[in-house]
Amino acid sequence: MPLRFANKDYTLLYNITNDKKNIYIVIVSKDDEMERRILKSGITIYFDSKGENNRKISLTYPERKTGSQY
């Protein structure tokens, strides 16, 4: 740390880096309310390499299970 980026209210600090094979995302919050919201509702990060507000590729945490695995 320190992380390079923050949201406008500074409730989330984050950094994104990559190498040839992986993208690394670190998100930190010291705000208890924000942590509860993320754990309850999740957080989705969208990847848009062309800057066109395209939401086709995303990562959601925690992963939501669809259907039964059994």
Give descriptors for this structure.
70 residues; alpha+beta; two-stranded antiparallel ribbon; 1 helix; globular
Report on this structure:
The protein is α+β, with helices and mostly antiparallel strands and 70 residues long. It contains one helix and five strands.
Structural class: alpha+beta
The major pleated sheet works out as: 3 strands, antiparallel
The H/E string reads EEEHEE
Strand count: 5
Summed up, the helix count is 1
Identify the strand order in the major beta sheet: 1-2-3
**Could you tell me the radius of gyration in angstroms?**
14 Å
Low-confidence stretches at least 5 residues in length (pLDDT < 50)?
Answer: none
Q: In what range is the share of β-strand residues?
A: 25-35%
Quaternary structure annotation = single chain
Mean of pLDDT: 86
Euclidean distance between termini CA atoms: 41 Å
What share of the residues lie within helices?
A: 10-25%
The shape is globular
Q: What is the total domain count?
A: 1
List the helices and strands and how they pair.
Layout: E1 5-6, E2 13-18, E3 23-28, H1 32-41, E4 43-47, E5 57-61
Antiparallel strand pairs: 1-2, 2-3, 4-5
